[in-house]
Amino acid sequence: MKIFVTGVGGQLGHDVVNELSKRGYEGIGSDIQPQYSGIADDSAVTKAQYVQMDITDASSVEKTIKEICPDVIIHCAAWTAVDAAEDEENKAKVHAINAVGTENIARAAKAVDAKMVYISTDYVFDGQGDRPWLPDDKCYAPLNVYGQSKLDGELAVSSILDKYFIVRIAWVFGLNGNNFIKTMIKVGKTHDEVRVVNDQIGTPTYTLDLSRLLVDMVETEKYGYYHATNSESEEGGYISWYDFCCEIYKQCGMSTKVTPVTTAEYGLSKAKRPFNSRLDKSKLQKAGFTPLPSWQDAVARYLKEMQ
Among 47-51, 66-70, 92-96, which stretch is predicted with the lowest mean pLDDT? Predict the structure, then answer.
């Protein structure tokens, strides 16, 4: 099986290419940079074939995909800077990458009859209430530019293709890029106290665990919408960013004080954030996929990998 991966310069794309290599699949990575090497010399990304491709250029996408003719496209490339997406000068670019770029990939996938995986987000919903969002919910109501652009990408994929997996995730962390864990450790080392919001509820996603699931998925034809974050702990259920930070410091042995605040009190975000990022993941097991391990376990393994 030949698998084409977009966005290998990011947290998830990097881990997906490594997972493909571990399983002996032919992985071809792409990103907008002229060349890309992994975070370590022995990384599988450095061994995988790499092609430069701008997903917003429809003719380039069509030409590249037709030449490679992959069996599967795992589309990880995206604009993910949620606050910056609200800036007037960025809005067109965000739409071009997340909506038009995704449509370009979907059309190219159809042309070569490839399966496609599209990575989406809980931000396609309005973030209200406390009911976990179901994968097949259609009550879309994005709160911000980023959420709307990802929803537009979803709609493009589902309207163009039959052989697709739309996988929604949240609160992403991985080795190859910046994320909440890295930020909190850095801030915690230079401050006696940090303020973290406690009224946005969900669960995080470790890209290493997610990459394994995505490869499991493309080995099947169990198409459709899925939710895939790390599992809730048996005793705790869903968590807030405050809970997440407390666990990070606990596992790191850091004594930095963590003060819970509301989103309104924190008040630094340009983009509206969802209060309810709970994603129901039961469909994974029903389809025969192995759910991601608990988020505490993921944090422990991630911190070990960071060292």
Answer: 47-51
The answer to whether residue 111 is domain-embedded is yes
CATH number for position 88: 3.40.50.720
What whole-number distance in Å separates Cα of residue 86 and Cα of residue 102? 20
**299 in a structural domain:** no
pLDDT tens figures, 35-50:
765 544 445 555 568 9
Separation between Cα atoms, residue 7 and residue 75, nearest integer Å: 7
Range of the domain at 82: 2-175+204-232+278-293
Name the pLDDT band for 88 (thresholds 50, 70, 90). Answer: very high
Three-state SS for the chain is CEEEEECCCCHHHHHHHHHHHHCCCEEEEEECCCCCCCCCCCCHHHHCEEEECCCCCHHHHHHHHHHHCCCEEEECCCCCCCCHHHCCCCHHHHHHHHHHHHHHHHHHHHHCCCEEEEEEEHHHCCCCCCCCECCCCCCCCCCCHHHHHHHHHHHHHHHHCCCEEEEEECCEECCCCCCHHHHHHHHHHHCCEEEEECCCEECCEEHHHHHHHHHHHHCCCCCEEEECCCECECCCECEEHHHHHHHHHHHHCCCCEEEEECHHHHCCCCCCCCCECCECCHHHHHCCCCCCCEHHHHHHHHHHHHC
pLDDT at 253: 97
Residue at 188 is within a domain? no
Among all residues, which ones are annotated catalytic?
A: 146
- If one counts the domains in the chain, the total is 1
Say whether pTM exceeds 0.90.
yes
47 is a domain residue? yes
pLDDT digits (tens, 9 = 90+) for 241-258: 999 999 999 999 999 999
